[in-house]
Amino acid sequence: MRPALHSGSGEGLQSRLSDSGPRGPGMNIRIVAVARPVGTAGEEIAQLTAEKLGFRFYDYQVVQTAAQEAGVSPETVSEAEHTPSLLTRILEALARNPSMPVAAWADPVPLATNPLLTSTEYRRFIEDVIRDLADQGEAVLMGHGAPMVLHGRSDTLKVLTTGSTELRAQRIAEGMNIDVDSARKTVMRTDSERQDYFQRFYNRAWLATENYDLCLNTDRLTPDQAASIIAQTAQMH
After folding, report:
1. CATH number for the domain including 52?
2. pLDDT in tens, 21-31
3. What is the domain range of residue 35?
4. 3-state secondary structure the chain
5. Contact 9, 122 (CB under 8 A)
6. Is the pLDDT higher at 109 or at 38?
7. What total of structural domains would you count in the chain?
């Protein structure tokens, strides 16, 4: 596995990246999979990364919308037993729906109360969709545990955006027009839910840096700086 790069300040790492010499005619990295705790501006970073690399962008909202358009529900998936026709339908739906911008403060869907995410059959189906999108290449995937699903693929750059609780809470408070105390509770709740979720289904610690190739502290980086670092890292490999 590639050693994880940790960045709190964009200038030093960006300088090292730019000094690495011209890249070859092709990139080995075909997929960027992003995990983003709420309030880290990960949505904006992922979308900017896709623009810089010329990749397609898929976030959790787009995948859910495509699933609904394709008529896929936990019951449908269970009955069909992951038939290829369902994969075809959802991939076609994804192709018809361009990526939609999402706010950098967006509160992820509560995992514990969402039947689509807690259904084992649906979760496995979405994992199949993520793998198919990865096989197509040239995509930035965010949400649905994409870094965990694609763990071990040499063509995938696994990225974690992170930040302090206070600055994350400030972003959420401003974006959702709520007080900072409520926003802080949102940060703590969603972090706890996701930690439990990924430990349960993947037996991995969600925020453990060894699960990622690149970890970016968004307290010290603008979304554009973070996206530039991700894009340059992908182009180096």
Report:
1. 3.40.50.300
2. 333 345 699 99
3. 5-236
4. CCCCEEECCHHHHHHHHHCCCCCCCCCCCCEEEEECCCCCCHHHHHHHHHHHHCCEEECHHHHHHHHHHCCCCHHHHHHHCCCHHHHHHHHHHHHHCCCCCCCCCCCCCCCCCCHHHHCHHHHHHHHHHHHHHHHHCCEEEECCCHHHHCCCCCCEEEEEEECCHHHHHHHHHHHHCCCHHHHHHHHHHHHHHHHHHHHHHHCCCCCCHHHCCEEEECCCCCHHHHHHHHHHHHHHC
5. no
6. 38
7. 1
